[in-house]
Amino acid sequence: MTTARKLVLFDIDGTLLKVEGVSRNVLIESLRKVYGTEGSAATHDFSGKMDGVIIREVMQQAGLSDSDIARGFDEAKQVYIEGFKANARREHVKLMAGIAELLEALSKRDDVVLSLLTGNFEQSGRHKLTLPEINHYFPFGAFADDAATRDELPPVAVARAEAQTGKRFEGKDVVIIGDTEHDVRCARVLNSRCIAVATGHRAADQLRSHNPDITLETLADTAAVIDFITA
């Protein structure tokens, strides 16, 4: 069994990194191919949302029935993943300030376990992390493949952590780090702690209005972030 005291769950987009343009463009092409329309994908707010939820929302706004969306969903998902992996390059990915240093520092500690809690499908999410060479920090995680809503992901991540480490992380021993109100809300599912970081599309004041445990402009102050995680 691990000696770790904290399970740290990182969001990907807007928290660890940003991918410029590719994700939305590939999704638009995938939806056109499978459903014959892109719906509202060109302007839809993707921030903090599950990939599967995004597909359903933009197709609903295009007037498709739930049954029509469901029939094409698996194909749309696979076309998107394949298209993203074929088109995303290292130059499209920007690591957020301090991420490389923070992950390296956390990975050397025996009192924390690193994992993911993300709205990405696993294959496309893993590709985003592989391009800037940070995927190896995250041996497991909870992804859009695992649930219909983000609020269902914390129990998945905790169960996988227990399977990997032999330890059941509970309550404040779980720390969720993300850049939207969706991350803050899902932290309440297990009464976890939450670090909200204003490196995505939400300003710090917007994030504070949702009452995370702490709001940071960036994760660049490695020592301060680690102090909060391990407190």
Description:
The protein is of the alpha/beta class. It has two domains: 6-19 and 92-230, HAD superfamily/HAD-like (Rossmann fold); 22-87, DNA polymerase, domain 1 (Orthogonal Bundle), CATH 1.10.150. Helices cover 43% and strands 14% of the residues. The chain has nine helices and eight strands. The chain has helices spanning 22-35, 51-61, 66-87, 99-107, 122-130, 153-165, 181-187, 204-208, 222-230; strands at residues 6-10, 17-19, 93-95, 112-117, 141-142, 174-178, 193-197, 214-216. A six-stranded parallel β-sheet has the order 5-4-1-6-7-8. Strands 2-3 form a two-stranded antiparallel ribbon. Helix 1 (22-35) packs across helix 3 and helix 4 (99-107) packs across helix 9 (222-230). The longest helix has 22 residues, at 66-87. It is globular. The model has no long low-confidence stretch (mean pLDDT 96).
Would you kindly provide a brief summary of this structure?
This protein is α/β, with parallel strands linked by helices. The protein is 43% helix and 14% strand.
> What name does CATH use for the topology of the largest domain?
Rossmann fold
Estimate the strand proportion: 5-15%
CATH class of the largest domain: Alpha Beta
Helix content: 40-55%
What count of structural domains?
2
N to C succession of SSEs: EEHHHEHEHEHEHEHEH
Tell me the distance between the termini: 21 Å
Low-confidence stretches: none
Categorize the overall geometry. globular
Radius of gyration: 17 Å
Q: Please identify, by name, the CATH architecture of the largest domain.
A: 3-Layer(aba) Sandwich
Across the major sheet, the strand order is 5-4-1-6-7-8
What is the arithmetic mean of pLDDT?
Answer: 96
| DSSP summary: helix tally | 9
Summarize the biggest pleated sheet.
6 strands, parallel
SS content category = alpha/beta
Number of strands: 8
Give the full name of the CATH homologous superfamily of the largest domain: HAD superfamily/HAD-like
